[in-house]
């Protein structure tokens, strides 16, 4: 009889142990954080696949944006990410440099992502040596865009 009770207790203990291992001891994970408007995950965070409870991730301002305030650090707490405190604003690209007989319509502004319209004085037409729309982009600083205005030739 004692043997039977010990066997039942062992089964009960094994069942409780298995229940604890599979249900009670499941680690909490956060989903992969998402990028926002002008805010990206750091390179280190992009390389991670798992974000267990207590994980810390750094956010950064994306290309064309600059940091105004905040640390950019978020934490995984109760399977959710804390609210980011990072504030990023669009960079001002400033007006482009006009060539002779050229002017620009910057009515959309000169912030990152804005478009400008290139125009020539009356009697002149644009000639593009590179097909590249004159948008305000980060790479514009390093791009020599050969855009000139030349006298129209009447046939």
TrEMBL record:
Keywords: Disulfide bond, Signal, Sushi. PROSITE patterns: SUSHI. Residues 1-28 form the signal peptide. Residues 28-90 form the Sushi domain. InterPro entries: Sushi/SCR/CCP_sf, Sushi_SCR_CCP_dom. Disulfide bonds join 61-88. Pfam families: Sushi (PF00084). Gene3D superfamilies: Complement Module, domain 1 (2.10.70.10). This is Sushi domain-containing protein. It comes from Ilyodon furcidens (goldbreast splitfin).
